[in-house]
Structure formats: structure tokens, C-alpha cells
Design brief:
CATH architecture of the largest domain: 3-Layer(aba) Sandwich
Number of domains: 2
Strand content: 25-35%
Radius of gyration: 23 Å
Largest sheet: 12 strands, mixed
Oligomer: single chain
Distance between the termini: 52 Å
CATH topology of the largest domain: Aminopeptidase
Helix content: 25-40%
Number of strands: 18
CATH class of the largest domain: Alpha Beta
Order of helices and strands: HHEEEEEEEEHEHEEEHEHHEEHEHEEHH
Length: 442
């Protein structure tokens, strides 16, 4: 099996939350001689060097500074979060000799896919230790799984005909235990103390996650099943593409950005609607001694490839796709378009990515929703709205999107890495856009 696929599976397994994904990326970036830039510090950016910065622990921007002042940006973007179930602040309660945890729904998960699964707890906490020091810690608790049990068919005899109907307040409650190991603490406090030692909990962002690791599917191990393929597969492909094109461009800024909170609208300090990317770009331009006028020119001469996942043709529901836009697993990258601009692709940006795929001999499929069915969206339109940067939306085809267990083809992931690498190495993608603009102006 490809080393890149094995690396993807490892990345999925160590990234149950956005904070864990960013932490894993941080380690890989440092290992490849990327220098960390703290947002609250003064930046000194040297031409030809590689850098990264982190926002709120869950969003990350990495870039390779060009040898000369940047005239264009090759930006690939995705998101670090996935639909999930989050523990409420006062989550623990007791009923009929059972220890239970109340949950909130984050984003739009396929709720039934979370039933009857072994679930761990992961996220970040802010604690005060025995010496009074405040510390932020990542945690992953999977030695004592909880479960959201489904109602038996005998008590819900019509479930196979009408489907599972879940009330998000009453039915999304996790069964954690039948007894407390320490009556002086809540069960959750006891679990946290096992992981962190003596401490005082000051704040937390804790999510449930399926503890089953990523696995191959198919005789030839041609597919991967895992939690958080959407959109960690995209994050991984972008990072590997950047890693494969690590040489600095002459005047092209190679950049990757991974935002948090896409699944809940992106309107946060670390989301795609935030100034995180714009501030980073402007600070880079300042380091090269360039003006705000130069910054605006940079945006127009650049191209953003928004990389997410796409709806593959479902073998059991072929009627859910437009008959002429049916992306298949293992048959190539998907270019996504939508007349309501839920995807940012247009004729110019589509031409740029199509031309690049043709040059690199990478298969390209197309997706548009049925006329009687809405589609999802991505960070692409949000980013384009905030910056004005030309943007195209692409993705690898996937089944069971937003499920606790998703499915994709290995070959599509390898193709995505090749495309992103070619995008970073090709200095003409943005030139296509400028040529088109020039032709239209004359």
C-alpha cells in the first residue's frame, strides 16, 4: 500500500478533533523545517523560508515565502472540523442507576450513525494544576467508552419502515457507566483526573468520537473507512502536496490554510469568515516592504483551490444524482459547481483547474446537484466573499458523508495529492486567469 495512504490513515487515527489535527500538522511542519510564527509576536519573514501560524489551536496557515516579493498566491484551503456530538458544560446526570452525559449536536451529522458505537472523549481543556499554573491540554479518553444505545425493535416495531426518529434533547444521551469509581467526583471528573492528574478544570471543549480506527475496505484495499474523512482527507492532501513542492517560488507565495468551524457556518475567530487569512497575507506583504495597494493586486492575481469532499454516486440511490453528473469512487477528482454559488467555481477558475488536470493527466469528474435537490457548501464561497480572490471548489468523491464512519477510494486521494502538488509547482494557473481578464477588457 502507498506510503501516502498509510500516512493518511495515521493522520485520521490521531485526529479525533480539530485541535488534535492541528497539533499533528504542527509536528509534521516542524519536522520539515517550517518555522512557527505566534500571532501575538512580531514577524520576521525571510525569502525562501517556510512558516506556519495557528489560530485558537484549531486553525492553521502554512506558507513558503518566495524569493522575491509575492505577485501571486497559490492557495489551497480546507477545514479541520467535522460534524460531531459535543458534551454539554454540565453534561453529567444520573437516572435509574445509570451515569449519563447530555450532548449537543455540532454541525449536521448523520445522527443514526452514532448509535450503538463505542465512543471516546477527545478535545481540549484548560486546567489549573497543583502549583496554580494555567495550562491548556489536549485529551483523548478511549479506555472507558460510552455508548448511545438504540431503542430495541420490540419497543419501536415500525423503525424499519419509518426509520429512526431522534429527539436531540431526549434521545442523544450517552450511557457512560452504571457506577461511580469515586463517589467524591463525577465520573467525567474521575476520567479527566486519570489523564491529567490533580487539577482544577477551568474550561473545556469536549467531543465524543468513534474509537474504531481507520480501516481498508475491498479485496484490493482500494477504499478507506474512517471517521472525519470529511475533511481531514483534504487537509492531508493539501499538506502532502505542499510538502512535495517545498522549493520556494520566484514570486509566487505557496500557501495552505485550514480553518475550523466550517460545519457550523465559519463565522468564528478561527473560521473562514474571520480575518485570519487576510491578516496573515497582509503581514507577509508588510515583511516584504509592500503597500496595501500591492496587497490588493496580489489578491486579484491569485487562485484559491477550495478542497472538500464530494458526493459520490450511491449504489443504492442512483436517482439522487443528476443523470449526467454522477461522480464515481476511484475515478478521479470532482469539480463542483452550483448556480446559487454554494460552490465558488466559475468559468475562469474551472478553466484553470481543468487545464492543470489535463497537463498532469489527472482524471476530472463534475458534480452539480439535481435541479430539485439542494447541495451543501464549503469554505470556498465564504473565502471568495471575504477576499475577492478567484476560487474553485473541488473534492474527492465520498460515501456516507457526515456519518460517524465515512468511505472514500484510495486512488482518488492519491490523485488529489498529485493535483495539489502540481498546483503549487505550476506558475501558470493564475496566469490563465489574468489572460482571460485581459482578453475580456479588450
Amino acid at each position: 500500500m502507498s506510503e501516502q495512504i498509510e500516512d493518511l490513515m495515521s493522520f485520521l487515527n490521531v485526529s479525533p478533533t480539530a485541535w488534535h489535527a492541528v497539533d499533528a500538522l504542527k509536528e509534521q511542519l516542524i519536522a520539515k523545517n517550517f518555522n512557527f510564527l505566534a500571532e501575538g509576536a512580531s514577524w520576521e519573514i525571510l525569502p525562501g523560508k517556510s512558516y506556519f501560524t495557528i489560530k485558537n489551536g484549531s486553525s492553521l496557515c502554512a506558507f513558503i515565502a518566495p524569493e522575491k516579493p509575492p505577485r501571486s498566491v497559490h492557495l489551497a484551503a480546507s477545514h479541520t472540523d467535522s460534524p460531531a456530538l459535543k458534551l454539554k458544560p454540565a453534561s453529567e446526570f444520573y437516572r435509574d442507576s445509570m451515569v449519563l452525559w447530555g450532548l449537543e449536536v455540532y454541525g449536521g451529522p448523520l445522527l443514526t450513525s452514532w448509535l450503538n458505537r463505542d465512543l471516546g472523549i477527545a478535545g481540549r481543556v484548560v486546567i489549573q494544576d497543583e502549583k496554580g499554573r494555567l495550562k491548556e491540554k489536549l485529551i483523548r479518553l478511549d479506555s472507558y467508552p460510552c455508548v448511545i444505545p438504540q431503542l430495541a425493535i420490540h419497543l419501536d416495531p415500525q423503525v424499519n419502515e419509518i426509520g429512526v426518529v431522534l429527539n436531540k434533547q431526549n434521545h442523544l444521551v450517552a450511557l457512560a457507566a452504571l457506577q461511580l469509581p469515586d463517589v467524591s467526583k463525577s465520573y467525567l471528573d474521575w476520567l479527566l483526573h486519570q489523564a491529567l492528574g490533580e487539577h482544577s478544570l477551568l474550561g473545556s471543549d469536549l467531543f465524543l468520537f468513534p474509537i474504531e480506527p481507520a480501516a481498508f475496505v475491498g479485496y484490493g484495499q482500494e477504499m478507506i473507512a474512517s471517521y472525519r474523512i470529511d475533511s481531514l482527507a483534504s487537509v492531508h492532501a493539501i499538506w502532502k502536496g505542499l510538502e512535495l513542492s517545498a522549493d520556494a517560488g520566484e514570486d509566487c507565495l505557496k500557501m495552505a490554510v485550514f480553518w475550523d468551524n466550517e460545519e457550523v457556518g465559519s463565522s468564528t475567530a478561527q473560521g473562514a469568515a474571520s480575518p485570519f487569512l487576510a491578516h496573515t497575507l497582509e503581514r507577509i506583504m508588510i515583511s516584504y516592504g509592500k503597500s496595501r495597494k500591492d496587497y490588493f493586486q496580489l489578491l486579484e492575481n491569485s487562485l484559491c483551490v477550495s478542497v472538500d469532499l464530494a458526493h459520490a454516486l450511491h449504489p443504492n440511490y442512483p436517482e439522487k444524482h443528476d443523470p449526467f453528473h454522477r461522480p464515481l469512487l476511484g475515478k478521479g477528482i470532482v469539480l463542483k459547481s452550483n448556480t446559487k454559488q454554494n460552490y465558488a467555481s466559475n468559468a475562469r477558475t474551472t478553466a484553470a483547474i481543468t487545464h492543470l488536470c489535463q497537463k498532469a493527466h489527472i482524471p476530472l469528474q463534475h458534480f452539480v446537484s439535481r435541479g430539485d435537490m439542494p447541495c451543501g457548501s464549503t469554505i470556498g464561497p465564504i473565502h471568495a466573499t471575504k477576499t475577492g480572490m478567484p476560487t474553485v471548489d473541488i473534492g474527492s468523491p465520498q460515501l456516507s458523508m457526515h456519518g460517524a464512519r465515512e468511505l472514500m477510494a484510495c486512488e482518488d486521494h492519491l490523485g488529489m495529492i498529485r493535483l495539489i502538488s502540481a498546483f503549487y509547482n505550476d506558475q501558470r494557473s493564475e496566469r490563465i486567469l489574468s489572460i482571460l481578464t485581459a482578453d475580456l477588457s479588450t
